[in-house]
Amino acid sequence: MVYGMGHGSCSPVLPLILCCLFILSPGCISEIATPAVVRTVAPVAVISTPESPVATLPAAGMALQVTDLPSDYHLRDRTVTAYGGIGQIFRDLGWQQGYLVTFYRLDTDIGDMTSIIQEIDIYPLDSVKDAYSLKKEALLPPDDSRTDYQVPFPRTGDRSIAWREVRSYNNIPVVTYTVIFTKKNVYERISMTGTSTDYEVLKDLAMTAAARIQ
Questions:
Q1: Domain ranges in the chain?
Q2: How many CA atoms lie within 13 A of 62 on its CB side?
């Protein structure tokens, strides 16, 4: 005798199957969030090296190069400064070393010649200001001068001053621009002299020279 499943009866297997189908249904599966991994990066310590209060390059290493000048200038001379060529007063201030470089531009067709001279001197840090004061005093013109005067100039280095002079040679006016400045323990003098001079060129050269003192 075969027994059928009546309408009012329910197999205990059916709810179990339905439950499994419900759990496995794609719309009912919840993704399990994976916790983010947080990595802690230790900060890198940046140690700044304090700038040296005195120049770390020799005088020759701070000199202008011909490539720093307009293309029509040429190198005339480069030389170290001899101790014997330094005045006693500057020796007493502890003068240590120096360098001198000269450039020129020449146009024989119009009789034009201009020279640029850079003088570099290194002193102890505590006496470079005194050397500057003495050089500045020597640069000042007589009180009655009508052709020598101070000209405005961008501050260069730690202290600076610039002058313009006019002299006449064989009735030809010759102009000289001179800037002196100090930076760290270095004194510099840059002058431009000739029948055609350019204040802007001198200004650029002074900025380049000051930046080279490291």
A1: 59-211
A2: 32
Give, in degrees to the nearest 5, the angle at Cα 179 between 96 and 88.
Answer: 35
The single residue listed with the structure tokens 């200038």 is 73
Give the three-state DSSP class for 212: coil
pTM: 0.76
**Residue 197 neighbours by CB under 8 Å, 6+ apart:** 114, 175, 176, 177
CA-to-CA dists, residue 127 to 40, 124, 190, angstroms: 52, 6, 20
pLDDT per position as a tens digit, 11-45: 554 455 444 444 445 554 445 555 666 666 666 66
Q: Domain 59-211 has what CATH class?
A: alpha beta
SS3 category, 42: coil
